[in-house]
Amino acid sequence: MRVCTRLVAVWLLFSVALVTGQAPALAPPERIADGVALYRLNDSGLLSPPGPVAVQALRLDPRKVTLEIRRGGAAEPARETVEAIAARRPGAIAVVNGGFFSLETGNPTAFLKIGGEVVKGTSRARGAVGIIDERGVTKLLFDRVTVATRSGRPEYTPRLGSSPKEWARAPHAVGGAGLLILNGRELTEWQEERISAGFDTTRHPRTLIGVDAQSAIWLITVDGRNPALSLGMSFTELKRLSRRLGLRTSLNLDGGGSTTMAVSGKIVNHPSDPGGPRKVSDGILVVPRTR
Questions:
Q1: Is 189 helix (H, G, I), strand (E, B) or coil?
Q2: Is the pLDDT of residue 47 over 90?
Q3: Residue 124's closest CA among 198, 192, 181, 208?
Q4: Cα 196-268-219 angle, rounded to 5 deg
Q5: What would the DSSP string read from start to end of 252-287?
Q6: Buried b (16+ CB within 10 A) or exposed e, 78-88
Q7: By CB atoms within 10 Å of each CB, which of 74, 133, 220, 241 scores lowest?
Q8: pLDDT, the chain, mean
Q9: Distance (Å, rounded) from C-alpha 169 to C-alpha 166?
Q10: In angstroms, what CA-CA distances link 272 with 47, 171, 230?
Q11: What is the per-residue pLDDT for 62?
């Protein structure tokens, strides 16, 4: 009878999680700062077939912190490691790499907007994220969007229901490659994003940004290309990870050798480039909210 009671209790907890959208229980996180917690996952069942994996996931309280995007150094090629980018921003708590870029020039090759200025537009309707402040709360805007500049003014064309006005008022935004989940709905094709063949099905190191059912923001890195430590993830596995964390929306950012997370000035993941952390074009910074 006692065993049956325990089974019923477990089932009820699982059912509540499904109904409320809450993530399954995770190992206790490391508290980094007020409103910033770092979770680490190494569940081989996140991969199919199972295999070694290492995930670092920052959960951010949007009332306590906000996000900024900053470029790498001014010298050509305009690239820096994410720690160097964060070091130039007083008070930065954490940072991950952001958008796609040219290794030769350091110039962004996807949509990038910093401080209200469009650094790079795009004719490809790839997944993107915008950062908005609403009455002291950081909110993220997701869609597939093209950005054209005519007469010096950017024109935003979202494809999945967001407003061009919202993208216009977002001071920071960055494009990715693979909008995985949007408002609870898993996306299964990326033809419109014009992603190269095999990019979604091959395991790579990945960087992910998303939002859960409680409006918390998540910045996530998945290590890869290291068979002893972590194999990386495909898009299907990234969606499985997103569900494990309770994300209702998630976007794949630049990955591979670029995938890096630094917390309190120290790298906490395992970048895959043999030479160490890659110098990147831009980073997404976590900073304390001042108002």
A1: coil
A2: yes
A3: 192
A4: 55
A5: E-S-GGG--EEETTEE-S---STTSSPPBSEEEEEE
A6: bbbbbbbbbee
A7: 74
A8: 91
A9: 5
A10: 18, 31, 10
A11: 98
